[in-house]
C-alpha cells in the first residue's frame, strides 16, 4: 500500500475535503477514475472549480458514498462502461488507420 495512502486512511479525523487522488483512496477507486465518476454525474466537486483547476471533494459526502452499496455498484458500472467504450474507440481507430504498402 502506498505510504501516503496508508497515512491518510489511518488518520483519526480525516480532512474536511480531499483532492481526487485522496477521494479515490477513500472510495477504493483509482485517482484517474474520479473524473469519470464526475462526468457520469455520480460525484460532484466542491464549489465551482475551473476546468483545469484542482477539484476538492467533501469527505463527509465521500464517507456516505463509500457506505452506499447501490452507489458503489453504479459507480463501478460507470467505470466499466467508460473503459469498454474507450477500448472500442481505440480498436476502431486502429482498424480504420490506413496501412501504407511498399
Name the features.
6% strand, 102 residues, 5 helices, two-stranded antiparallel sheet
Topology:
Blueprint: H1 3-9, E1 17-19, H2 20-27, H3 34-39, E2 56-58, H4 59-66, H5 69-96
Antiparallel strand pairs: 1-2
Put the structure in a nutshell.
This protein is mainly alpha-helical and 102 residues long. Helix content is 56%, strand content 6%.
The outline comes out as: elongated
Gap between N and C termini? 50 Å
- If strands are numbered along the chain, what order do they take across the biggest sheet? 1-2
Main sheet overview? 2 strands, antiparallel
Helical content band: 55-70%
Task: Describe, in plain words, how this protein is organized in 3D.
It is a single chain. This protein is mainly alpha-helical and 102 residues long. Helix content is 56%, strand content 6%. The chain is built from 5 helices and 2 strands; from the N terminus they run H-E-H-H-E-H-H. The protein has helices spanning 3-9, 20-27, 34-39, 59-66, 69-96, and strands at residues 17-19, 56-58. Strands 1-2 form a two-stranded antiparallel ribbon. The longest helix has 28 residues, at 69-96. The termini are far apart. The model has no long low-confidence stretch (mean pLDDT 91).
